[in-house]
Amino acid sequence: xxxxxxxxxxxxxxxxxxxxxxxxxxxxxxxxxxxxxxxxxxxxxxxxxxxxxxxxxxxxxxxxxxxxxxxxxxxxxxxxxxxxxxxxxxxxxxxxxxxxxxxxxxxxxxxxxxxxxxxxxxxxxxxxxxxxxxxxxxxxxxxxxxxxxxxxxxxxxxxxxxxxxxxxxxxxxxxxxxxxxxxxxxxxxxxxxxxxxxxxxxxxxxxxxxxxxxxxxxxxxxxxxxxxxxxxxxxxxxxxxxxxxxxxxxxxxxxxxxxxxxxxxxxxxxxxxxxxxxxxxxxxxxxxxxxxxxxxxxxxxxxxxxxxxxxxxxxxxxxxxxxxxxxxxxxxxxxxxxxxxxxxxxxxxxxxxxxxxxxxxxxxxxxxxxxxxxxxxxxxxxxxxxxxxxxxxxxxxxxxxxxxxxxxxxxx
Length: 412
Description:
Blueprint: H1 3-8, H2 20-41, H3 47-54, H4 58-61, H5 63-86, H6 88-106, H7 112-126, H8 130-140, H9 143-174, H10 177-198, H11 214-223, H12 228-254, H13 262-266, H14 272-289, H15 295-308, H16 314-342, H17 347-399
Helix pairs in contact: 2-6, 2-9, 2-10, 5-6, 5-7, 5-17, 6-7, 6-8, 6-10, 8-16, 8-17, 9-10, 9-14, 9-16, 12-16, 12-17, 14-16, 15-16, 15-17
């Protein structure tokens, strides 16, 4: 479809599959997901190196990720309120650009305290992207196309997580962890420029002048809903378990009896390709079959994969990581699009509350699991994650009985 024809469409028309605007939106949000997750999680495979250089335990080294994800959890709620005032696109562009610059700066940290300070600032900066992106999609994309669009955004997130971990592992093994962070920061600057160029301006955004005053009302509205609080809790469990899995698998595979190289362990990042597939696949499946019948199955797949990693076989460990990755990205794609479809205005804050719990899970469960590694090794890690995912499975079974709210959630 030509630009002229697109411009001639009524302003009330939402973006649908097969249009130029749909292609541009998905390309931009793919870059947005890529940048956010590559910059946030590129530090994860570097934990053993940081432990060695700065004389840290596994749990202490994980603070370099936990401080970012924890502050991201808080800032995204506050910055979502800002986006209701200034608009979606300007805040997302500023978030991506500043996070990229901070990643470059982190390469010059002289000690662990400086690295933590820069990573904390990065977490705050990234708060302007995830929830606002979900709100943008919920406002601008035609509902029957939303599952696919959200899946593509999650796929960009998976690609970013894969690329960040892989590049960091390879460059840190053959050059240094500083080179790894610097290169990824530059890539983030390029992604921010492409995002700014491609993303169409909002056509269904309604500016709010209430600002921070909207937060108490939004909390009462969203947390009184019959389904949203359970989806928020599910986000806490999903991300906490997934990030813990990748946080500490490196410690296991670098040690006996495996004794793998840092760059070899980094190849596990290729499993994120499965996440790219599963998030888009799950979005298409949900558009046909509905969320309530698919979500609990995907969570069960994730739990099965984590249990497989208990075996002392490298093949089974990799297979388990692959299953867990598939189940996680499919579950996250389903749950996050469910929030976007179910939430009433202010939608950005509904997405922000989902991601608040999501990143708090990353921070809190991610750090707590490090303590379990120190006490009981990998069996302790799996035991904790099994309990957490068991509670998540109970949540998904409860959501099977959730009643739709109306037209925006007709496909639930």
